[in-house]
Amino acid sequence: MPLDGVKKIVLVLSGKGGVGKSSVTLQLALALSLQGKSVGILDIDLTGPSIPRLVGKENEKITQSPRGWIPVEVHPTELAANQEESSSATPRGSLRCMSVGFLLRDRGDAVIWRGPKKTAMVRQFLTDVYWGETDYLLIDTPPGTSDEHISIGESLLTMASTSSTTATSQNIPHLAGAVLVTTPQAVATSDVRKEINFCAKTRIPVLGVIENMSGYTCPCCGEVSNIFSRGGGEVMATEMGVPFLGRVPIDIKFGQLVESQKIEGDIDSDADEEMEVDQAATQQSLVEEDNRLLVDKYRDCWSLPIFEGFTKSLLEKVESSASQT
C-alpha cells in the first residue's frame, strides 16, 4: 500500500515564503533522529526545492527498485558497535529525503508546471516512494494554500488516518497533524492565520506554531538579541486557539553548517580563474576541517536544545492523541 512502513506523518506549513520553513523541517528531522527516530523528509515544494541543498546532497540521483523510488540517504541508523562511542545515550535514527530536485537533469532547471501536473507529481511522491520502516515522515510544503496543499491534503486524508488507534490496528499511516512556521512580523502571522483556516477546512490537526527568526543568537556567547520584532507568533497562536511551540532565534552556526554542505559543483564556470582557485581552496579547507555527518555537526548548534524541546512536545502530543483515541 502507499506509504507502507511509515508510522506517522507531520506536515510543515507556512503562509508566507522566506520564513525558514525548510530549515525548520530539517532541524525537526535532525532532532527526531537524535532521539532515536527513523525520519524521512518529503519535499513537495516543486518549483523551489531546497532540501537537497540544505542536506548537501544536491548532486544525488534517485534510484528505482521493484518497490518504488528509493529516497536519498542523509545518514544511516547508528550501528550498535558505535553506541559506546556516541555522546548520545539514545542510538541515532536514520534520515532520508525525497525531492523533485533529485529528478532534475540540472539543478538550475526551472520547474514550469501547471496545476494538474503538480497534483500528479505530489500523488506520485506519495504512492511511488518506498520509505521502508519510518517513524516520522515530515512533509515540507511550499508557502500558501496552492495546488500542492490541496493535493497533499486530499491524498493524505484518503491514504492516512487521523485516528492513531485505527492507524495502528490496520497498519495505516497516522496523519499526526501540521506544524506551522512564521516569523514575528505581522505580515507573516496574517498569512499563517489563513493556513490555520486551511487546516480547519481540510480537517488536519494543528500541532503547534513555531516563531522562527525571533531574535539573533551571538555565535560566541549564545546571547539572543531581538533585531526584529518578537512575540507576534505567540499572540497569533493565542488568538487563533492553537498551541504555541516556541521561538527560534537566528542561529549563525546553523547557517554556517548549511553553507559547509556546499562542497561539489558550486563554482561558477564563468567566474575568473583566481576566484575559482580561492573558492576551491575554501571548500577544500571546509572538507578537511570537519568531515562529520550533518547530524553530528548539528550537535554544535545553539538551536539544537530548542528543537529537542519541540520534538519532545510533538512526541507527547502524538502519544497523548494515541492514548485518547
From TrEMBL:
It comes from the Eukaryota. This is Uncharacterized protein. Keywords: 4Fe-4S, ATP-binding, Cytoplasm, Iron, Iron-sulfur, Metal-binding, Nucleotide-binding. One of its GO terms (cellular component) is cytosol. [4Fe-4S] cluster binds at C218, C221. Component of the cytosolic iron-sulfur (Fe/S) protein assembly (CIA) machinery. Required for maturation of extramitochondrial Fe-S proteins. The NBP35-CFD1 heterotetramer forms a Fe-S scaffold complex, mediating the de novo assembly of an Fe-S cluster and its transfer to target apoproteins. InterPro entries: Mrp/NBP35_ATP-bd, NUBP2/Cfd1_eukaryotes, P-loop_NTPase, YlxH/NBP35. It is found in: Cytoplasm. GO terms for molecular function: 4 iron, 4 sulfur cluster binding; ATP binding; ATP-dependent FeS chaperone activity; metal ion binding. The keyword Phosphoprotein does not apply. PANTHER family: CYTOSOLIC FE-S CLUSTER ASSEMBLY FACTOR NUBP2, NUCLEOTIDE-BINDING PROTEIN NBP35 YEAST -RELATED. Pfam families: ParA. Coiled coil: none annotated. One of its GO terms (biological process) is iron-sulfur cluster assembly. ATP binds at G15, K16, G17, G18, V19, G20, K21, S22. It comes from Talaromyces rugulosus. The keyword Oxidoreductase does not apply.
